[in-house]
Amino acid sequence: MIQPFENSCHHVEDTKSVQEVSSGSRGKTHSDSWLKKVYRPKYRTEGRLQETANYSVKIQFSRRRETFPLNTANRAAAARKAKRIWASLVANGWEETLKEFKLQAIYVAPTFETVGDYLDFLEANHFYTPEALFRNVTKFFTALRSIVADEGKPKRMKKRRSKLKQANQALRAVKLSDLSPQRVESWKGRYLAERSGTPIEELRAKHTLDSYIRASKAMFGVKIRKRLANVGITLPEPVPFANTSFVSRGRSAFRYRSRIDPALLTKQAVEEFQDEKPELLKIFLLALHLGLRRNEIDKLMWSQFDFPRRILHIETTQYAQLKSEGSEDDLTLEPELAQYFESEFKRAGGIFVISCGRMPKRTGGWDAYRAQPFLTELCDWLRSKGVDAQKPIHTLRKEFGKLITEKLGLFAASLALRHSSPTVTATYYADDRREKTTGLGKLLRLG
Q1: pLDDT tens digit string along 63-114?
Q2: Domains present along the chain, CATH in parentheses
Q3: Quick one: which of 32, 142, 145 has its CA closest to 82?
Q4: Torsion over CA of 182, 187, 189 and 190, rounded to 10 degrees?
Q5: Is 393 within 8 Å of 287 (Cβ atoms)?
Q6: Which residues contact 424 (CB under 8 A, 6 or more apart)?
Q7: Coil, strand or helix: which one is 367?
Q8: Taking Cα atoms as reference points, which of 293, 295, 311, 292 lies closest to residue 303?
Q9: Beta-strand relationship, 311-314 and 361-363
Q10: How buried is 270 (Cβ within 10 angstroms: 0-12 exposed, 13-18 middle, 19+ buried)?
Q11: CA-CA-CA-CA torsion sign (239, 242, 243, 245)
């Protein structure tokens, strides 16, 4: 009968010790100090709040806080393990402690062996918007297909998604280490050699090749590499396309040169479209008179117009993602332009400016054009009027940039076109036909 009494006394002593410890008389190096810090995490299931069977503990040390599962349902054992974790932190720091007590919390930076590994990481971590990723990857894969092919000229892929996907799977398996500078330079030479012909054909080949190089460089660009470095990832050297140079030289290789009469073209569009084809006229005016991009025109909504103030708000909507954040702006409408669109708005039967009976459709980052038939018809009409370009509607936007440059200067044109910098405007858009003279010649008195 003595033994039960002794056990009972011993139990009372332990309880008293716990009460004393909980008052704060012990430090963190004693397991008793952790008895109140360990806890059972709560979770909700079927609307009821439950507790886990095992204890955990939250520990903050050296500006970092982690939750450690203690893997025991015994409070005293959990407190002892928490004390060991704290002692390890003090003695060894976070890395060694996590290796011993919470291995899954140690971050291991991923490595990329293939193109597919790299692209999957960019997509999963939102390094690009879906639209930007689709645009860059499409051109990058075209370049990659040409690089790895036996022949330099890439074969045109049919639009059937199954065949395109099958071909892209092979490209995804290409190793990043195989995209060496030597291989890329060899591809550039081969690409141009197989497209030699007339000077204009060679110039177009150079521009096409540069577009592939530009998209490929963007996939491994400086901004991307800085973001990767922030999460402990360093791409293997040499970085693909990092030092690849463009084949065209100088601003003149890309600068827009106007070969159209915008006033005459506007007069012809009004005469031919106003009564019979109003949708084509709206597209024409939005491109030439306001400098909108094709996708901005296609998904422009009447709600973006502020007719009393004669303003058009170019902004992201539930149906359209702009090319960049800098593309958002308010455009001022000339009185006649505002009057025309306001009259069209009063006759409109839908929410979109271009009425075609279709809603926007998005597939894997690619935005299909709602009004594709109208866009195609206008392109054919523009070509018949002498706008001989691969993208006639975009040529109207370039002509808009040229008109603003001549009227207000390069900086104003850059703002009106909503470019990221005046350099883009100067390189691709600003054809300024004004005489580049000082006007001081009249002061000369010769003879």
Answers
A1: 889 999 998 999 999 999 999 999 999 999 998 898 888 877 666 678 889 9
A2: 17-105 (no CATH), 115-244 (no CATH), 262-428 (1.10.443.10)
A3: 32
A4: 140
A5: yes
A6: 414
A7: strand
A8: 311
A9: unpaired
A10: middle
A11: positive
